[in-house]
Amino acid sequence: MGLNAEQLRDALDALGAIEPAFADGLARVGYPAPRIRARGYDTLLRTILGQQVSVQSANAVYAKLASLVGNPSDPHTILAASDETLRAAGLSRQKASYAHSLAEEVTSGRLDLDHLAADDEEAIAQLVRIKGIGRWSAEIYLLFAEGRPDVWPAGDLAVQIEIGKLLGHDTRPSEKLVRELAEAWRPHRGALAIFTWHHYGAGPDVELSKAPV
Fold first, then answer.
1. What contacts 206, CB < 8 A, 6 or more positions away?
2. What is d(CA 179, CA 128) in angstroms, rounded to the nearest whole number?
3. Which of 7, 102, 115, 206 is deepest in the core (most CB within 10 A)?
4. Three-state DSSP class for residue 134
5. What span, in angstroms and rounded, lies between the C-alpha atoms of 8 and 194?
6. Domain 41-120 indexed as CATH 1.10.340.30
7. What distance in Å separates the CA atoms of residue 203 and residue 184, rounded to the nearest whole number?
8. Where are the domains of the chain?
9. Cα–Cα distance between 196 and 26 in angstroms, integer?
10. Chain centroid to CA 172
11. Which pTM was predicted?
């Protein structure tokens, strides 16, 4: 499960002591609510369904999928469904391929979501081997579903924008610069990412539907 409210508060207090700009930001907008997803296959499937569409659209596709195949959270159900059935539920041809690939990885045992590598970079490498799951999606999964405290999705535009705002940059810092700056914020970068989404005002659900995989 993701970082809880107490973990977020403790981490952000520690960051505020390191960087006064973060303390000022906390004083302005307060602490973010936890962003928690369930660990496992269903969350990754929903991540695929949510790529490049609104949260509402992704939820509608999931509901349609459930009406056509039964229980989408069971990878065997998705694996048994034809491409035509998945397309009828609203998945694009590409997303249907991704959904089948994910289900195959899980049912074959090649991907064990209960025992991903303890090292964050190794776990990201395991996840990005799945078709349709890129680094950003892997990082979000590890942060929201596993509560890994130091995952840092520096490629997220809202993270870049808000780090720039918080630190007083004239322009949005690059992903490279955001990664470099964040070395000083270990081991609390996951909480900081959640705070940047909170500071942005849209919340991560909006970004989840827009960010690239």
1. 55
2. 19
3. 102
4. coil
5. 9
6. yes
7. 25
8. 5-36+149-210, 41-120
9. 10
10. 21
11. 0.87
For 5-36+149-210, give the CATH class. mainly alpha
- Is 107 strand, coil or helix? helix
Q: What are phi and psi of 113, to 5 degrees?
A: -70, -10
Long-range contacts of 26-34 (CB under 8 A, 24+ apart): 26/195, 29/198, 29/199, 31/5, 31/195, 31/198, 32/8, 32/194, 32/195, 32/197, 32/198, 33/5, 33/198, 34/2, 34/3, 34/4, 34/5, 34/8, 34/194
Cα-flanking dihedrals φ and ψ of residue 142, to 5°?
A: -65, -35
Q: Mark residue 90 as left, alpha or beta (left: phi above 0; alpha: psi -120 to 50; beta: remaining).
A: left
Structure-token pair, residue 108: 């074959």
Q: How many CA atoms lie within 13 A of 127 on its CB side?
A: 30
As given in the structure block, the two tokens for residue 131 are 């078709």
Structure tokens at 185: 């914020």
Altogether, the residues listed in the chain come to a count of: 213
